[in-house]
Amino acid sequence: xxxxxxxxxxxxxxxxYTLALQFADGSRQRIDFRPVxxxxxxxxxxxxxxxxxxxxxxxxxxxxxPNGADFDPETLHDWQKYRADxxxxxxxxxxxxxxxxxTTG
Length: 105
Fold this sequence. Notes:
The structure is a single chain. The relative contact order is 0.19. The chain has helices spanning 39-42, 48-51, 73-77, 79-96; strands at 8-15, 18-23, 28-32, 55-57, 62-64. The chain is α+β, with helices and mostly antiparallel strands and 105 residues long. It contains four helices and five strands. It starts with 7 loop residues before the first strand and ends in a 9-residue tail after the last helix. The protein has one domain (8-96): NE0471-like N-terminal domain (NE0471 N-terminal domain-like, 2-Layer Sandwich), CATH 3.30.2020. The strands form two sheets. A three-stranded antiparallel beta sheet has the order 1-2-3. A two-stranded antiparallel sheet has the order 4-5.
């Protein structure tokens, strides 16, 4: 069984935390990432300046941020299929985050 390999060809920032993506197969997605910006990797992207530093990774055909955050191009292509699970994961990350460094006093 084969499946399509999706690649992001182009993107535009169209609003706060929102990107319009164009894929190699001609399809498009408009994604508001706010609901999934939690946790160690994606949480820092709540800083709009960092979020807007998004770049196209030509090698892997996806988008990436300077802190190493990225999404699988299939996930982006089929966002509606994965959105609910990603939002649920982000909620778990938000409630289970512990401080990165603890100090004893």
